[in-house]
Design brief:
By secondary structure, this protein is an alpha/beta fold. About 35% of the residues lie in helices and about 20% in strands. The strands form four sheets. A five-stranded antiparallel beta sheet has the order 4-14-15-16-17, covered by helices on one side. Strands 5, 6, 7, 8 and 9 form a five-stranded parallel beta sheet that branches.
Length: about 450
């Protein structure tokens, strides 16, 4: 077994001092010995916490981060204007481009403490809408780019069938996204076979939204997936925009989340991405379902989406995780801090996330995001305990905002005070992918990424 001696480690039971963590060849934790002697084991340079899952990613959008911040004659001052910029980028990408962007993104995410990513993938076909010879070619390119960097992947091919409610046709710029339940499940089956050898790849599905995938199609796709893998994750965009809610009400008489729950059903295998504009009944419905709310604070702020009703959701016992979505940020600490700060601004009070059992804001946010992200990815991660994946993040004990702190104050320092990331080493399923803040592929990934940007924008 491999082992690591740590000065302190965050476990589900709390912080454990002077611990020896051991894991097997498959990357599963076999033992955590408290008050241990290091012996010959490698020593961590600081506190160890579980890695987080980035539960919502469109990896190709990394290439347009910061490129949609200029007003044009056509507007562009809301989500729908931003979407036109995204469509233009989406029309240019080929598999090799998508792979290079994904590799760069994974390196950046790992450096900041993400150990897994849920890839919500809808670039299925050639830009003209013709399928590639291998209909899963774009999915494979993205998965390979992410996995080359060493991050764990939950890949979620998207069901995207209509351009809006009442079976509105797809626009030309959406034609490379087009799928139906049968073609989607064929991609899933291909990917399950292609990556059966890699336990760090999980395949699920993602109905894009109830506006782009009618509920009968969603139900058919879900039932087909369940026949292959009863525990596979399912993600969906829901209630991200006020216009989406209004259009859904006009077309169906129901709000998006309520419609999904009524006609398809929700359970803990689902992740409701954004879920920004829920009414009080939907907040309770989502919490009671056991599904995860997939919150992306930086992207939601960048797009002017609005704020998720976190206080009411937590009071109802809801689960959440965070993702970086369009990747204007790639840092879990900044996402979690922004989530808390946004709520403070709206409610005009401090300390929204903490509960009596967990009074630290940093610890409350981090623990919820770790558990919610693991659930959304369908992986045994997010907890440092026997039987879990050895997804470990080692913090720099000498970092000014980590040093001389103990217990949950370590997480408060990281999330709310740290200048630059204090992440020092990162392990994914027991394999060290970040060492002393460096990634072995960092230089090459960056060079390939710049070459790709020159091709796309030069």
């Amino acid at each position: 077994m491999s082992e690591l001696f740590v000065p302190c480690v965050l476990t589900p039971e709390g912080w454990v001092d002077r611990a020896l963590i051991r894991w097997d060849a498959q990357g599963r934790i076999g033992a955590i010995e408290p008050n241990a002697e290091p012996g010959r084991a490698p020593r961590a340079v600081g506190p160890v916490v579980p890695g987080l899952v980035n539960l919502h990613s469109h990896s190709f959008q990394r290439a347009m981060a910061g490129r949609a911040e200029e007003r044009t004659d056509g507007g562009g001052d809301d989500f729908w204007g931003w979407r036109e910029t995204m469509y233009r980028l989406a029309q240019t990408l080929q598999p090799e481009d998508a792979s290079a962007i994904a590799r760069q993104l994974a390196v950046e995410c790992l450096r900041r403490g993400f150990t897994g990513v849920c890839e919500f993938h809808y670039l299925h076909h050639n830009p003209d809408g013709r399928p590639y010879d291998d209909p899963a070619a774009m999915s494979k390119a993205v998965i390979d780019g992410l996995r080359e960097a060493g991050i764990a992947v939950a890949h979620l091919p998207v069901l995207y069938a209509t351009g809006g409610f009442q079976d509105a046709p797809l626009a030309d710029r959406q034609r490379r996204f087009k799928t139906d339940p049968q073609s989607l499940l064929a991609i899933v089956e291909t990917l399950r076979a292609a990556y059966a050898h890699d336990p760090s790849v999980r395949i699920g599905i993602a109905p894009h939204s109830v506006r782009a995938a009618p509920t009968p199609m969603i139900k058919e796709a879900v039932e087909g997936l369940r026949a292959m893998d009863g525990d596979a994750p399912i993600h969906i965009h829901v209630a991200e925009q006020v216009k989406e809610v209004e259009d859904c009400l006009a077309a169906t008489g129901s709000r998006p989340l309520a419609l999904l729950a009524e006609r398809v059903g929700l359970d803990p295998r689902w992740c409701a991405v954004h879920a920004t504009h829920l009414d009080a009944a939907e907040v309770r419905l989502l919490a009671a379902s056991g599904a995860v709310a997939g919150l992306c604070p930086a992207t939601e702020a960048n797009l002017g989406d609005g704020l998720f009703p976190l206080s009411a959701y937590l009071a109802a016992g809801g689960r959440f995780g965070v993702g970086t979505d369009s990747h204007v940020m790639r840092d879990p600490a900044r996402e979690l801090a922004l989530l808390e700060y946004g709520q403070r601004l709206v409610e005009r009070r401090r300390l929204i996330a903490p509960r009596p059992a967990r009074p630290s804001a940093g610890a409350a946010l981090f623990a919820a995001a770790a558990e919610g992200g693991a659930q959304a990815a369908g992986r045994a991660c997010g907890r440092i305990e026997v039987g879990a994946e050895a997804d470990l993040v080692v913090l720099d004990g000498a970092h000014p905002d980590i040093a001389e702190r103990t217990g949950d104050a370590i997480l408060d320092g990281w999330l709310f005070a740290a200048e630059g990331t204090p992440v020092w080493d990162v392990y994914v399923s027991g394999k060290r992918v970040i060492s002393g803040r460096r990634h072995a592929l960092g230089v090459d990934a960056s060079a390939d990424y710049r070459t790709t940007l020159t091709k796309l924008f030069g």
